[in-house]
Automatic annotation (TrEMBL):
One GO CC annotation: membrane
Species the sequence originates in: Intrasporangium calvum (strain ATCC 23552 / DSM 43043 / JCM 3097 / NBRC 12989 / NCIMB 10167 / NRRL B-3866 / 7 KIP)
Membrane topology: Multi-pass membrane protein
Chief localisation class: membrane
Location(s), subcellular: Membrane
Protein name: Peptidase M50
Transmembrane region(s): 25-46, 52-72, 113-133, 145-165, 186-208, 214-233
């Protein structure tokens, strides 16, 4: 699976290497699935003519080979994303399989579909030689492992192609709807609802159907489908929410920008008051600039109010300015949408930002997180009423 998200290496697990420059991690949750595989398959793979530990050792080998298959799947995602011009943050193998994180800010329906489909295709590609080798090798243990891995890759590949998020097939559906409607959010919502349907179908098929037919069913045969369905439902729900937010933030950046008045920090407060009055807009933000004309802080009315009237002509604006972080100026393309601004502010943890044109460096306006929340909240409310 693939997901666009920021990187935080403290929580990803054990780093085991890199693939095409992207770090590869084994999450701390992965041993859970390894233990489960050994516990479930160990007894079934045991043989009376071998030691008591034989079946468990074969199951451990299967867990290791399955980990390799997961990493091949995720590496395919990563290489495709990089080939399409996206930076890849990390590859992680975890209890649910794995995921690849890449920057999809400027993605397209075609790229989304390509990055998604190569993962399952890599599993199907692995299944073929594994099956061929498993049917020809003479070593019985090797043959057993190869055939198990072949079946596992076949199932993983086909399952991931099912048309619902968070599966790769859901990404393909999302890309298709995005292509047809021109709305990325619509694709996420549609594929998310299909993902919920897949979750329900998983439980009904693997647990409900045997029970309805009166077949005996072990606890594991109930718990495992329910766990998978929970994972699917959770991912699908997140996709639906993300789709709604994506639609709400797909408009132009100007929808949240507020006007600014740029003033040199060396100007006196008396000059500032005169120029602000001349601007004729109470909602205009007063932004102080350095000697090079670059914004660095916001006028603080409370601090200015403490300056005696007689000192206004000799007190510089810089004395009553609240300095902002060095990265509070966000450069965006003229056609950038609100999603890109939200992402930049989120990554930098900015409650307020000045937006400039990335080409001309012209200041376009100022935005606050509060203003974004208001605009996006109103858009989401309209969607719920529609």
């Amino acid at each position: 699976m693939t997901s666009p998200a920021p990187d935080d290496s403290r929580h990803h697990g054990w780093r085991i290497g890199t693939i095409a420059g992207s770090p590869v991690y084994i999450a701390r949750s992965w041993p859970v699935i390894a233990v489960l595989i050994i516990a479930v398959f160990g007894p079934a793979l045991g043989r009376s003519d071998r030691s008591a530990s034989y079946g468990y050792l074969v199951a451990a080998g299967y867990a290791g080979l399955l980990l390799g298959s997961v990493l091949v799947h995720e590496a395919a995602h990563a290489l495709a994303a990089r080939a399409r011009g996206h930076s890849v943050g990390r590859i992680v193998a975890d209890v649910w399989g794995g995921h690849t994180v890449y920057d999809a800010t400027r993605s397209s329906p075609g790229t989304t579909a390509i990055v998604a489909v190569v993962g399952p295709l890599s599993n199907l590609a692995l299944a073929v030689p594994a099956w061929a080798a498993g049917t020809t090798v003479t070593n019985e243990t090797a043959a057993t492992l190869l055939l198990i891995v072949a079946r596992a890759n076949l199932l993983v590949g086909l399952f991931n192609l099912l048309p619902g998020l968070p599966l790769d097939g859901g990404q393909i559906v999302s890309a298709l709807v995005w292509r047809v409607t021109g709305r990325k959010g619509a694709g996420l919502v549609a594929a998310g609802w299909l993902g919920r349907a897949m979750a329900v179908a998983t439980v009904l098929w693997f647990a409900g159907l045997p029970l309805l037919e009166g077949e005996g069913i072990a606890l594991f045969q109930i718990v495992w489908p329910v766990a998978i369905a929970f994972f699917l439902w959770q991912g699908a729900t997140q996709a639906i929410r993300a789709g709604a937010i994506t639609d709400a933030t797909s408009g132009p950046v100007e929808s949240v920008l507020e006007p600014v008045l740029l003033l040199p920090a060396s100007d006196s407060l008396a000059d500032v008051h005169r120029r602000a009055a001349g601007a004729g807009a109470e909602s205009t933000w007063l932004v102080a600039t350095d000697d090079g004309g670059w914004p660095f802080g916001l006028f603080d009315p409370a601090a200015a109010g403490e300056v005696p009237p007689g000192a206004a002509a000799t007190t510089p604006l810089g004395a009553v300015v609240t300095s902002q972080p060095a990265d509070w100026v966000v450069s965006l393309a003229p056609d950038a949408v609100l999603t890109e601004l939200v992402r930049a502010m989120s990554e930098r943890n900015l409650p307020v930002a000045v937006v400039v044109d990335e080409t001309t460096r012209r200041v376009r306006g100022l935005v606050t997180a509060e203003r974004i929340n208001t605009v996006v909240g109103s858009a989401l409310a309209r969607r719920r009423r529609a």
